[in-house]
Amino acid sequence: MEDLNIRHFKLTNGEDIVAVVSVKNDDNWLLERPVLVNPNLLGGYQFTPWFPFSKTKVFKVYFSNIINSTGIDADVKESYLQYVLEYKKQMTKIEDNQQFLADMEAEIDQRAADLYEEGNLFGKKKRTIH
To answer: If pLDDT is split at 50, 70 and 90, which confidence band does 42 have?
Structure first.
């Protein structure tokens, strides 16, 4: 954990991110697994994914988009690593749930079709007119 270069970045758009620095180039940083730092209601902070809908792990951030950066304390580093590892597990669960979601959708469609045939869709019975 000591050898990981994990830094806090203040971006020009107002975002605060924490990430592992992969490479520092002449005009940009390559950052791995960046997360947003957001204040919570209790006066503390929490991490949220920076790009929650992408499996991309490495992002290029140009120096022109960074106000400042600094290393982070050991306890924050530990919290960051725990968050990243837990989030990785959650993403695996999301991928595994695709079949579950497809099965549930098929079951809901079948129930709706059964209710429609029974004439009891939306709690209304078919009226028989003589």
So the answer is: confident
Domains of the chain: 6-106 (2.30.30.100)
86 Cα distance to chain centroid: 11
Express each pLDDT in 92-115 by its tens digit.
Answer: 555 566 777 777 788 888 887 777
Phi-psi region of 107 (alpha: psi -120 to 50; beta: other; left: phi over 0): alpha
Token pair 């697994």 is found at 33
CA 4/CA 74 separation, integer angstroms? 11
Helix or strand (DSSP H, E) at 86: helix 74-118
Counted residue by residue, the chain has a size of 130
Q: Three-state SS for 3?
A: coil
Q: Which residue has the tokens 């490495």?
A: 58
